[in-house]
């Protein structure tokens, strides 16, 4: 169902992909970059918690997110090694592109969406994340931006077979992301026309303005991808994800923006805003103990989780609950898994009740 972990110390699940000239290594994980509370070491904002198929409860990463050998660095290392080889296709997109790219201010017509796609002719990965100005362009190599240190950030990396990337391309075209660096060689165009259209600036100009599709990972796990365009003009979670999944949702998003939407209990499936997160029950490693609890005001991650155990959905994405982003593209990728759901659900300490303020 999942990939096999090969390095317990680095907490990296991996598989190898053999192409004609290279061996490409891809990964599959959920990762939570912790905020920097400012109470201890400066490196605190570079620590992360991690789970994968063989370790479905949170564990502290043995590396910092900016260090060689960590889960994100090991994943993106393949991009920096092989990106210019011509044997792979890749797309880097972010509504806040790296600061080294001049004259790249992104208007609201682009999606509020962040991620990386890398594949060869056999398989590849889709990394969905929330970090501004990340990752760097290929010529600069891997680093983690200072702007991503203070607040919490979310990452979901899934390995997919080659055939799924045409559907992923269709999802991304609907999102209309700012693709700040990309390469889709002509050898990929016949099989993956939507990915080629994406990097060529193509858009979708007719409804429907939202699309849900199931994606099957290389290991056979089904993920459900939700993508909306700006013309959808509604909240991703309350108007679509919650009723589609048939589940009440607790949503973590950046609450410091303008026009934040309150918790919504007007529909059969309720959507409640998370207010406080805690890893207290996951303190198997002393590196995480300083994060017994933190406010969502220092958490830039974007994810949601089913409220009750009758539904076991966990979704990681890139869009917030505010009025402005009702009119921007974005999405989320969901997994129905009891153990992963439990790991995320236990993080929620407080959420905003629709009737009477915060609820424990």
TrEMBL record:
<protein>
    <recommendedName>
        <fullName>Deoxyribonuclease-2-alpha</fullName>
        <ecNumber>3.1.22.1</ecNumber>
    </recommendedName>
</protein>
<keyword id="KW-0458">Lysosome</keyword>
<comment type="similarity">
    <text>Belongs to the DNase II family.</text>
</comment>
<dbReference type="InterPro" id="IPR004947">
    <property type="entry name" value="DNase_II"/>
</dbReference>
<dbReference type="GO" id="GO:0006309">
    <property type="term" value="P:apoptotic DNA fragmentation"/>
</dbReference>
<dbReference type="Pfam" id="PF03265">
    <property type="entry name" value="DNase_II"/>
</dbReference>
<keyword id="KW-0540">Nuclease</keyword>
<keyword id="KW-0217">Developmental protein</keyword>
<keyword id="KW-0325">Glycoprotein</keyword>
<keyword id="KW-0053">Apoptosis</keyword>
<comment type="function">
    <text>Hydrolyzes DNA under acidic conditions with a preference for double-stranded DNA. Plays a major role in the clearance of nucleic acids generated through apoptosis, hence preventing autoinflammation. Necessary for proper fetal development and for definitive erythropoiesis in fetal liver and bone marrow, where it degrades nuclear DNA expelled from erythroid precursor cells.</text>
</comment>
<keyword id="KW-1015">Disulfide bond</keyword>
<keyword id="KW-0255">Endonuclease</keyword>
<dbReference type="GO" id="GO:0005764">
    <property type="term" value="C:lysosome"/>
</dbReference>
<keyword id="KW-0378">Hydrolase</keyword>
<dbReference type="GO" id="GO:0004531">
    <property type="term" value="F:deoxyribonuclease II activity"/>
</dbReference>
<keyword id="KW-0732">Signal</keyword>
